[in-house]
């Protein structure tokens, strides 16, 4: 009890209380320069009715959903390869190789994607250099697709690691049993390997989805006006727009939406797991 | 086929990173192709840029203070989590680990609201440290959970039976055995804090941390090659720190006589 007290008190004071304060703020309103402390749902009504807020919240969810899907689909074969086809004493080397790029400065990685995709960037220079295109492509950067690509790159290790751990836990004799009982390699994968790896896949989905919804740097750097996400809007309300209560409301709405989606996902997979 | 795909994926992972040294040594201010020739002047400029030095010192102070505090809290939480049962344990651990699954902007916003609007504090490096401790503690707990799990309780019991007091047992028996975990947690927390941007962006006062300073540079193209040079150095430093952490972890496993199951996460 004495041991748990310091970290618990710290988390209560710096996490639970501040979240409570944000919730409180979200029911107030900004009255020009002062804050009107009359509790009201006005901010929530505005978020629900103003198409700007709905568009950006919806776009954040779509972008981060696409990132999640893309990242997990791309990551699964990598995790599978390292778990099933790499010699056991070489596995940590491979994992190490996969995680190294993600320890370089996050800001610089995002910026480097701008260099990759830009007008005079790597891809355009390479394509014009070998004569495939005459004019640099302009649709690569400053849109939602650029955000999806950049975030998928940034979160790849977060998807690979949990899937790898789940695959490592699979008892290899189950796969042999399945083959002995007449299943092909293909059906064994879909009826044995994949269901057993599902907890890792779900963990990967959550680990990618939750932080990407609230990402600020990537949309700000590569998103352009068509790639603005909820975090940019929240930051704008606390910064230039000077409307902290609205920023608080947007934070609460974003957090609630993410939590509901995450819980729904966990619930659905539990049901699927139970039905089998 | 799968091997070819995995190698292609690694190339995708490394492609942007490999551009860092390319442009750090490129003799031109525009970050685009074609390249303009070799230079080391951007590295030389790093030595003379005093704003950059101040930001680096700020970041090192923040990362140092945050990692030490987070690991101290992590030791307490992991020890309580592994060794003891008490009512409300799941809820308490859940709250401590919550920052892992919370978008960082939410942490930043909530602390900003409390610090500035409610308590009326001036933002400073200390507000950044407070927030970084909060987000680093779950990582420290996760690593130290594993350390305490592999620690045989009978060793501590034996020490107490042989007449050691509890503090002596902790200092002479427990601490040396979990030391590799502590070092790994310190390194990971240090790296996380050093690279964290959005929380520092919200909570920093007039003294920027390194990522906040880099962010301000990204708007002034003339200084971008300097950022590339800095990035190259940072990359070398963080990779070295990680190699050190991994080496230390393996040594710890070897000392505890456990087979290497791979991976430091």
Automatic annotation (TrEMBL), chain A:
Keyword entries, A-Z? Cell membrane, Membrane, Transmembrane, Transmembrane helix, Transport
- Give the matching Gene3D superfamilies: MetI-like
* Recorded superkingdom: Bacteria
Annotated membrane topology is: Multi-pass membrane protein
Recorded GO cellular component terms are: plasma membrane
What InterPro entries does the entry give?
A: MetI-like, MetI-like_sf
Q: Which PROSITE patterns match?
A: ABC_TM1
Tell me the Pfam families matching this sequence. BPD_transp_1
The family this protein is said to belong to: Belongs to the binding-protein-dependent transport system permease family. CysTW subfamily.
Q: What is this protein called?
A: Spermidine/putrescine transport system permease protein
TrEMBL record, chain B:
Q: Mark the transmembrane ranges.
A: 56-78, 90-119, 125-144, 175-203, 223-245
Enumerate the Gene Ontology biological process terms: transmembrane transport
Using the UniProt record, give the first listed, main subcellular location: membrane
Q: Which domain of life is it from?
A: Bacteria
The places in or outside the cell where this protein is found are: Cell membrane
Annotated membrane topology: Multi-pass membrane protein
Q: Which GO terms describe its cellular component?
A: plasma membrane
Gene3D superfamilies tied to this protein: MetI-like (1.10.3720.10)
Q: What residues does the ABC transmembrane type-1 domain cover?
A: 56-245
Q: Which UniProt keywords apply?
A: Cell membrane, Membrane, Transmembrane, Transmembrane helix, Transport
InterPro entries to which the protein is assigned, alphabetical: Bact_Polyamine_Transport, MetI-like, MetI-like_sf
UniProt family annotation: Belongs to the binding-protein-dependent transport system permease family. CysTW subfamily.
This one is known as Spermidine/putrescine transport system permease protein
Native organism: Jannaschia seohaensis
Taxonomic lineage is: Bacteria, Pseudomonadati, Pseudomonadota, Alphaproteobacteria, Rhodobacterales
